[in-house]
């Protein structure tokens, strides 16, 4: 059963299957910013959710198409289509969390989200930040630390329940998608799996609703999205249509799908 959340001062969440997604940490680091060749556009954010606007100051990790770090830039500038069209690319991750019944936790993103509001998506989708702990690249430990942080921030999962060593890094995808005329995504996305029963206390500014689903229930949701009855995030659609179900069938034997040297161009 989908569980809906209500944001303070907001209308009731929309009905239907769903869960929502991602919040950025409170602090922004500007050290190491290297984007002098791109003039950043000015965008009016007065009409957007105040909490989500504050998160736009966080510093994402800029990368080249081979996932080599080349600098840092604000979340805001990383998600403007005008910059994406000039090639700005950043590092991200997508978490797929399963319980011990092999059900996948989905979320519907809050209508306060700046990119892809109201869309259904995987458990948690966000970005490592440009600070030392999350920049560390050995076995993607920095990305896995960021995932632990975001699972707490978005879904209220206690950090001790999802230590980085229990989060499995499978592979990476490179994709680009527009949310609207102003905002979009251009990411190399680390695919992370974890299987564990966890405690949930989601943030309604991030998440409208959430639910554990079976493979059959996810396929029904994807069918609804194909009929434009619900919206799903583009990265989740790509992953679900390409990889997810074979991974899901092999939760106890994921090692054979590990491809740390490969970036799937979607």
Please outline the major beta sheet: 5 strands, mixed
Detail the poorly predicted runs: 11-37
Fold-level CATH name: Nucleoside Triphosphate Pyrophosphohydrolase
- The helix-strand sequence is EHEEHHEEEEHHEEEHHE
Mean pLDDT: 88
The N- and C-terminal alpha carbons lie at a distance of 32 Å
Q: How many individual domains?
A: 1
Number of strands: 11
| CATH first level | Alpha Beta
Rg of Cα set: 17 Å
Give the second-level CATH assignment, the architecture: Alpha-Beta Complex
> Class by helix and strand content?
alpha+beta
So, the CATH homologous superfamily?
Answer: Nucleoside Triphosphate Pyrophosphohydrolase
Specify the overall morphology: globular
H/I helix tally: 7
Instruction: Estimate what percentage of residues fall within beta strands.
Output: 15-25%
Helix content: 10-25%
